[in-house]
Amino acid sequence: MKNIKDYSMEQLKEELKELGEKPFRAEQIFKWLYEETVQSFDEMTNLSLELREKLKKNYSICNFNILKKQESKDGTIKYLLDVLDGNAIETVLMRYHHGNSICVSSQIGCKMGCKFCASTGINFIRNLTCGEIVEQIIRVEQDVGQRVSNVVFMGIGEPLDNYDNVVGAIRLINHPKGLNIGARHISISTSGLVPKIYQLADENIQCTLSISLHATNNEKRSSMMPVNKTYPIEELLQACKDYIAKTNRRISFEYALAKDNNDNLEDAKQLVKRLKGMLCHVNLIPINKIENGQFDKSSNENIMRFRDYLNEHGIVATIRRELGSDIDAACGQLRRKNL
């Protein structure tokens, strides 16, 4: 049965026309789904009984079940969510002074094989639909009784490998009658799928693009991220420059610091050369140890030295605050445990 949360407002209007209903009903249904967050069509009390029966016959409302919930000492909450087909994904709520951020998954499993990411250990099963991506936000908001203000596509999966559904989800998240979260509060992270970066530049979505860079030369990056063998650093950075020129949006480069691998001053110098003159920001991530992982976290001293060198040479760099590492909810640690 079709998930009604997979439809945009315009698509839902067309669906209703085919059911012999007035298109304006789509706005009423959107209000029930995204403002009232009802879990059944029977709760849509301003719709006729006849229409509610038609909806029940033709569509489902995607209501994820919480299989497991873990809360960190820093307030971060990790959810294992049942996606209703025998599979599960992880979603993380992070609390900041400026509001609640949610890290959503875009796929069940991942094809990218990045060596520092726990999701590498999950076989790719399928893409999540746009409604299933949005449902992660709705379910978490229902559970904590609070609004989410920021959305990051950095959970399980490569967002740009599920391009159409991720863009569809962003439009639902951003829609004033959907979840109504501003595009500038939405961030998409990619390992570097160059053609999709060009495609995203044409979407006219004012979200933040985050690039998982993690190395300054092709040999080192390919050993960490197999995607680099298809789209080497030179192609990736040219796509980033073209993206910035087209959108006038700043790109965030993610750089996970691994001990004795990519965390020395020579790497910092090469990173400055690579990024000089670009409208960008570098987000330094203390790499998180994962099961069977080959990388260890860089020392605090090295991390701060790396950051300071970038800042002193004109590249704005900050160190990402670690949240949820005690429950394996930090960067790179999501993998559907205990399924």
Question: Main traits of this protein?
Answer:
single chain, alpha/beta, two-stranded parallel ribbon, 10 helices, elongated, disordered C terminus
Structure in words:
With 339 residues, the protein is α/β, with parallel strands linked by helices. 33% of the residues lie in helices and 19% in strands. It has ten helices and 14 strands. It has helices at 9-18, 25-35, 49-58, 130-144, 163-174, 194-201, 218-224, 233-247, 265-275, 300-312, and strands at residues 2-3, 59-60, 65-71, 77-82, 88-96, 99-103, 107-108, 126-127, 150-153, 186-190, 208-212, 251-257, 280-286, 317-319. The protein has a ten-stranded mixed beta sheet, covered by helices on one side. It has a two-stranded parallel sheet with strand order 1-2. A two-stranded antiparallel ribbon has the order 7-8. The chain is elongated and about 70 Å long.
Q: How large a portion of the residues is in β-strands, by DSSP E?
A: 15-25%
**Percent helix range:** 25-40%
Class from secondary-structure proportions: alpha/beta
In angstroms, what is the radius of gyration?
Answer: 21 Å
Q: Please provide the count of β strands.
A: 14
Quote the distance from N terminus to C terminus: 25 Å
Q: Regions with pLDDT < 50 over 5+ consecutive residues?
A: 332-339
Secondary-structure element order, as H and E?
A: EHHHEEEEEEEHEHEHEHHEHEHE
The overall average pLDDT, rounded, is: 92
Characterize the overall form. Answer: elongated
Query: What does the largest sheet look like?
Result: 10 strands, mixed
Helical run tally: 10
Taking strands numbered 1, 2, ... along the chain, how are they ordered across the largest sheet? 3-4-5-6-9-10-11-12-13-14
